[in-house]
Amino acid sequence: MSDLVVQRPEGLYCPPGDFYIDPWRPVPRAVITHAHSDHARYGNGHYLAAAPAEGVLRARLGEIALQTLPYGERIAHHGVTVSLHPAGHVLGSAQVRLEHGGRVWVASGDYKVAPDPTCTPFEAVRCDVFITESTFGLPIYRWCPDDEVFAEVNAWWARNAAHARASVLCCYSFGKAQRVLAGVDPSIGPIIVHGAVRPLNEAYRAEGVPLPDTRMVTEVTDKADLRRCLVVCPPGAAASPWLRRFGDAQTAFASGWMQVRGNRRRGGYDRGFVLSDHADWPGLLQAIDATGAERIIVTHGSSGAMVRYLGERGLRAESFQTEYGDDVVEADLQPASEAGA
């Protein structure tokens, strides 16, 4: 019996349904797991995504032929029953459940199992075959609870503010930035966001996600605010002229990669906070076990290590070669409207 999902040059393809999942080249029909730029690309003829993803997809891709589906609702296409289920990664992220000929496959996209107030929690979906990410698929990656991480972030910000220094926290503009904003203590000082972050904040708020008040740097009238603020911006902004207006600022990067000593130094940051929107090693294993799948297909990240480990546990494990990043690589760090602003 042929597989429900196979590899093609354009991406992961469902032959009986004649559609792709997160294709990296333009195709007629695409099912999109989430709006990060390595999974949702411009140029497809038709897009299907979870309903909560509509705002962020349109913010990033503009006018596209987009069909949305509430979580859990099923539709049939060429005899394949398709439904989308929460992935807990970012707003609107989804796992794609495919049912055809009595078989069930689930393509996870990116996911995390830890709680996150900015998106719908991960939902385990029973299946025969599970296509899982493995971005942080090594035993070294084990995340601390968010409240511990944000206690560190708030303490760092408060110390800097007491010394009249801005706190510049670099993180991906979609997903991580909103999670940071939801987790910090806004009573410490004003919060300024980069222009790449603002439209995504608006999309989150439109979906009912509460975020603290934020300002653009051009909206700051009291220069003293620039010496006690928290600045949330994408990584590329830290090396741009945009940052100069904050003076002698302290910089930090929020990422799962900060788990490994040396990444902070190589990035030139003063601090590193371990905060990821992907599952850690225990989370990946927890999610895989919960599916009940006997066959696991691993994509991107530490796929070789994960395949070996699962094989040793008696599962049928293999990998797909994809063009997804090991984490998000944002090509749109600084929109033209923000250049030099």
From TrEMBL:
InterPro entries: MBL, RibonucZ/Hydroxyglut_hydro, Xnuc_lig_assoc. Its EC number is 3.1.-.-. It is an enzyme of class 3 (hydrolase). Keywords: Exonuclease, Hydrolase, Ligase, Nuclease. One of its GO terms (molecular function) is RNA endonuclease activity. NCBIfam families: Xnuc_lig_assoc. This is Ligase-associated DNA damage response exonuclease. It comes from Ramlibacter cellulosilyticus.
